[in-house]
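Example complex used in Figure S2.
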Amino acid sequence: MEHIELFFKSIFIDNMVFATFLGMCSYLAVSKKVSTAVGLGAAVIFVLAITVPLNWLLDQYLLQPGALGKWLGAEYADYDLSFLSFIMFIATIATMVQLVEIVVEKFSPSLYNSLGIFLPLIAVNCAILGGSLFMQSREIPTLGLATTYGIGSGIGWFLAILAIAAIREKIRYSNVPPALRGLGITFIITGLMAIGFMSFGGMLTGGDDEGAKEEKTAQVEKKVVDDNEKEMANNIKVNE
Amino acid sequence: MGLLSKKDAALIKDPLADNNPITIQVLGICSALAITAQLEAAIVMSFSVLFVLGIGNVVISLMRNIIPSKIRIIVQLIVVAALVIIVDQVLKAFAYELSKTLSVFVGLIITNCIIMGRFEAFALGNGPWRSFLDGIGNAAGYGVILIIVAFFRELLGAGTLLGFPVLGDPIEKTGLYAFGYENNGFMLLAPMALIVVGIIIWIQRTKNKALVEDH
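Predicted assembly (455 residues):
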């Protein structure tokens, strides 16, 4: 249950692009065509799904206050290495990206051709590091949940870049004021999309007690199969 | 600037307007949007980036001849990460409340594209002094946009600047509020940051037609 809840929360409510503005640089730079956007989006899901759980392990067994004590014995329990988080996380991400690039190139040349040029870009995509840092600051409790969180936020990012790429392909035929063309109008559209995504905020808000918690996760499940309209109606119900 | 030659001065001046990292080069958007709900956070963020980019550019520029090009990204990331850790620790020690507001966005300076972008585009091919000026210039250009956006968001959204109420008291109905003015709480929400930046880009490109893109 909590997996499903976290999954949809990370896709819609805490959407990387619309709620926290992570990965905006590549989001704006690579969204001119749908096909390239899909390639980058897929690469982001892939890398997030690997690096978030990996960094979760690092965080639990190396970086947290007292983490060393878990496996090195009590005399190491006093160490607090959390100031090393940034450097460990980014090193993991950079090496994983390099490793993934080599493995993909070796075993699946066709996938490499479609993902390949995006992989180096990903090492410096804030969505990836942001995923790990949010995982740390939100104190996600288990490895499984960390994986779910990684995949969920990857999919959220993928949806966002896919949507903006599709809009930008169409907007080429519209008469946008010259000064707004390109970057300006993309910003404003993203802003409007973010307002739209804010409506998902009501999705998981219910009562505070245990019973209500079960109810709201059930609601979430139901919503998956329901169409958009019913979803809105449900939102209102949950809010009330 | 008598201290600098004309070419060097251009390194600082260009990024402030016609080659602005945010509105023209499209670098470093993430943090520019996320922490601009308060002016104070935006100012601290600007100075953090100024520090990291100024020093980082010099370090990379000094090492540019000994970094193997294949692993340069990792080397650059480590240099930035080390500098960002310093910033983070200093903030935690001297401005704890603020470092809570900035939360993960201090860490995200590491992947701020301005930093990697300037390393790649400038520091790897130029001497330390010029790289330093380039770093300072670009960080200042970034800071200017950040502060403009935060100024409007905090003023219109909360009626305060740096936490001081400048438009009167909304509860006591003094100042502007006496005439029925209301704060626009929407300005504090995430989407408005995007729209404010969009408007800044619009104004800038209307003034300087040379910057207009053709789709």
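The beta strands of chain B are 160-161, 164-165. Chain B touches chain A through 48 residues (CB under 8 Å).
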